[in-house]
Q: What sequence folds into this?
């Protein structure tokens, strides 16, 4: 019987966060710090013809104005001469909002004021920021192209008795985490320390070592708390290298913080997508062909792909499938991963098309999905390590009351409001990455646990504390878990929903290794009650090492360590995916049922009820897990109804780079949300039997909402977001 795992546990870092003890990147107190403010380009493409910094340099408190003419070199020789790998390295401008100067002053206000006094003259070149205009120039994404088509999808489509085909569009969308991106950099001799907002301290360390041409062991990156990131801090952004370069040149610490507007061009975004989906089925609804062609934008200087069509291959049993992805260069900054990258975009198109097919067949949308349920992975033919999606459908439909749905659009009402019910499926990979953790167990029963992972909000501090306490047999308050520092054992980036499976497995492994060490100590005594037993037969609990099958047989750990002259025992463990995983397909699944109410006169949509059922392996902390899934639903509502980054293609500029005009859900937009878990026992995915849930929670929501809106109104909106003018 688990002591902590599977039980609702409040955040161990909660008090630190609400009392202000938790320090975020810009909050570290460093003596004699100077403040940097970034100047960004006002054109989308061209060259800097002239820079005048004289007035800015004369302004009060200004220490230096860095431009491409006087900035320290970043990157390998020649890097950035023609491309944009590092900031302030050439006169080239590749996107509107690109950093073109850094003003450093004694105070933030002085730096910001002086930044307005920097004068730049440009030689503009023709730019193109409209994805639709460059679709003909799109190139196949090499990674996606490795997955070959199944059967002959286009021939099977032509032969299918029932066919649907449609195009779906999603605009650029932006991560808008509460904490702005920031770094503080300081040098001690040739050693650099950087406090940075990042999802991977080791990645930033390597980036800075390369950029500044210093040995990697001379760089320390620290990031103990992150106020939301959602993918915007997975790749190293340009500001840490800029901050470190300025700190080296000025020989004093420098702090740089993005403004909210700078965040729109400073850390990537969800790319704009155009998707063409064609489905062919027999009259019983069994899919004969799936063609899912996706296009999205990248930048002119960097290739990026979010694998939009990746999961289309694994969702439904269908003998003929083609799911190509093409990427087109635009004169915008490079996109990046954003919560449920690729999957939520791809599944919006696929699950909307499935709803359209259900109507073409005169079939219930849930019955259509069950008719095409994949018992094994359609792509590889391998069995699933676990798959409880059928149970998700059953529980969700029952809870929601799906059987009472009248299928005809506009047939359900609440007074004058049109009522719509829609559903969708969701899928995400159940991944594990190599990760290491160190456990130091002390004679008094307390423990320090460390791994250089991140906590961008899902509750990593808490779940790692729970795992360590579970396997060390201690109380939660006896475990101190530390993260976010390159002095700790290496961990992967916090992304992809793999942190608990990866770092959690390492913490479990290191804790079990401590028990193994203690057992070896006990077995030095031939008369020990644990003589001759194997390590997997014992457990640590409340200061004793005891036999699992017979709690009376055990030894006191403190006495054991004292006899051996030990104050503490330390173990570092690296956890890796098991070889057995290769024999299976491992995915997390879910089903979403959504109710909307639409005002027929105003076109306003309210999502009044959501039931989301997820199969994500074992749930370690239900309190945090439900919070994660509710957050995913909220974001899905934002994506479906509100979120869009407006680009004025005449200027290549993102126009609504603030929280006043970039709309996200507020409390008044959110009504009843219920999240339910169907637990799966799956030790193939990892020893803890956990699958990631952070991404999965939003994957099916935009499609389910769009399907519900169609049911309510009879209007099929294929271009997100679904705003009132599209329904009037």
A:
């Amino acid at each position: 019987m688990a002591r902590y795992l599977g039980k609702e546990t409040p955040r161990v870092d909660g008090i630190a966060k609400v009392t202000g003890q938790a320090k975020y990147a810009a909050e570290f107190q460093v003596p004699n710090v100077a403040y940097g403010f970034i100047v960004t380009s006002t054109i989308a493409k061209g060259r800097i013809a002239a820079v005048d910094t004289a007035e800015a340099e004369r302004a009060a408190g200004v220490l230096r104005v860095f431009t491409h003419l006087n900035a320290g070199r970043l990157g390998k020789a020649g890097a950035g001469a023609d491309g944009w790998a590092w900031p302030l390295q050439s006169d080239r401008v590749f996107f509107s909002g690109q950093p073109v100067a850094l003003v450093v002053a004694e105070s933030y206000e002085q730096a910001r004021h002086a930044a307005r006094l920097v004068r730049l003259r440009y030689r503009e070149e023709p730019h193109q920021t409209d994805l639709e205009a460059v679709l003909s120039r799109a190139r196949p994404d090499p990674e996606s192209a490795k997955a070959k088509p199944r059967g002959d999808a286009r021939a099977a489509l032509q032969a299918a008795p029932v066919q649907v085909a449609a195009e779906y569009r999603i605009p650029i969308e932006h991560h808008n985490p509460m904490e702005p991106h920031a770094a503080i950099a300081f040098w001690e001799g040739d050693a650099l320390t950087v406090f940075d907002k990042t999802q991977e301290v080791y990645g930033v360390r390597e980036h800075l070592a390369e950029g500044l041409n210093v040995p990697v062991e001379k760089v320390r990156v620290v990031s103990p708390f992150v106020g939301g990131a959602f993918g915007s801090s997975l790749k190293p952004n340009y500001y840490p290298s800029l901050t470190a370069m300025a700190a080296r040149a000025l020989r004093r610490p420098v702090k740089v913080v993005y403004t909210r507007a700078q965040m729109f061009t400073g850390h990537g975004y969800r790319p704009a997508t155009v998707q063409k989906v064609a489905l062919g089925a027999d009259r019983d609804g069994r899919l004969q062909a799936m063609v899912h062609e996706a296009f999205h934008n990248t930048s002119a200087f960097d290739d990026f792909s979010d694998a939009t069509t990746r999961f289309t291959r694994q969702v439904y049993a269908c003998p003929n499938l083609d799911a190509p992805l093409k990427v087109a260069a635009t004169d915008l900054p490079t996109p990046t991963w954003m919560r449920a990258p690729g999957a939520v975009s791809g599944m919006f198109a696929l699950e909307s098309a499935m709803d359209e097919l259900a109507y073409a067949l005169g079939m219930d949308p849930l019955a259509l999905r069950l008719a095409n349920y994949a018992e094994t992975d359609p792509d590889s033919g391998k069995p699933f390590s676990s798959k409880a999606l059928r149970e998700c459908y059953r529980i969700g439909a029952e809870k929601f009351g799906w059987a009472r749905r009248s299928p005809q659009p506009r047939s359900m009402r609440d007074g004058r409001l049109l009522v719509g019910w829609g559903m969708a499926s969701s899928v995400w990979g159940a991944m594990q990455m190599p990760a290491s953790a160190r456990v130091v167990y002390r004679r008094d029963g307390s423990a320090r646990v460390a791994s250089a992972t991140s906590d961008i909000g899902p509750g990593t501090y808490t779940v790692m504390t729970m795992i360590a306490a579970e396997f060390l047999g201690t109380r939660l308050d006896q475990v101190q878990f530390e993260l976010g520092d390159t002095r700790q054992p290496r961990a992967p980036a916090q992304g992809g929903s793999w942190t608990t499976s990866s770092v959690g497995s390492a913490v479990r492994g290191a804790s079990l290794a401590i028990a193994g060490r203690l057992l070896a100590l006990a077995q030095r005594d031939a008369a020990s009650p644990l003589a001759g037993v194997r390590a997997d037969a014992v457990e640590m609990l409340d200061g004793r090492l005891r036999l699992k099958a017979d709690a009376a047989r055990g030894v006191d750990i403190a006495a054991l360590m004292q006899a051996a002259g030990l104050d503490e025992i330390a173990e570092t463990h690296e956890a890796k995916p098991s070889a057995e995983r290769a024999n299976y397909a491992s995915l997390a699944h879910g089903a979403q049922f959504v109710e909307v109410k639409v005002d027929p006169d105003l076109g306003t949509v309210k999502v009044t009820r959501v039931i989301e059922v997820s199969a994500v392996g074992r749930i370690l902390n239900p309190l945090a897990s439900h919070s994660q899934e509710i957050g995913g639903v909220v974001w899905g509502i934002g994506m479906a109804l509100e979120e869009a980054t407006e680009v004025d293609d005449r200027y290549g500029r993102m126009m609504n780079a603030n929280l006043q005009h970039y709309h996200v859900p507020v409390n008044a937009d959110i009504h009843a949300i219920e999240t339910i878990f169907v637990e799966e026992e799956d030790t193939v995915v990892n020893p803890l039997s956990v699958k990631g849930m952070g991404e999965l929670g939003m994957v099916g929501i935009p499609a389910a909402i769009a399907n519900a809106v169609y049911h309510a109104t009879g209007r099929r909106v294929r271009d997100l977001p679904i705003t009132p003018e599209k329904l009037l």
